[in-house]
From TrEMBL:
Belongs to the transcriptional regulatory Fis family. This is Putative Fis-like DNA-binding protein. It comes from Candidatus Aquirickettsiella gammari. It holds the Pfam family HTH_8. Signal peptide: none annotated. InterPro entries: Fis_DNA-bd, Homeodomain-like_sf, HTH_Fis, Trans_regulatory_Fis. Keywords: DNA-binding. GO terms for biological process: regulation of DNA-templated transcription. Gene3D superfamilies: Homeodomain-like (1.10.10.60). GO terms for molecular function: sequence-specific DNA binding. SUPFAM superfamilies: Homeodomain-like (SSF46689). Residues 53-92 form the DNA binding HTH domain.
Length: 96
């Protein structure tokens, strides 16, 4: 899965006048998953849901913290979670 995520193109996010990205993040996730499945060579993955969440959550937290310059209150608000939940997730991802 990490290889599939690493192969995603790094594109600047362009924001339309509505304030939403022109190409949804969903598209990139779908591409990464399709790439992941194409590399399995007939093998069946196990715990795919947990794998995807683990691969996405850590970089999400890292990027949001960078965008908020380490301000956990702002990061939690941006993520739509409480500051306590953010701190718990940071510890789980070894980012605290």
């Amino acid at each position: 899965m990490q290889n599939a995520l690493d192969q995603l193109p790094v594109l600047p996010i362009q924001v339309a006048s509505t304030g939403t990205p022109q190409q949804p993040l969903k598209t990139y996730v779908e591409q990464a998953l399709e790439n992941y499945f194409s590399q399995l060579d007939g093998n069946s993955p196990s715990n795919l849901y947990g794998l995807v969440l683990a691969e996405v959550e850590s970089p999400l937290l890292e990027v949001v913290l960078r965008q908020t310059r380490g301000n956990q209150t702002k990061a939690a608000k941006l993520l739509g979670i409480s500051r306590g939940t953010l701190r718990k997730k940071l510890k789980q991802c070894d980012l605290a």
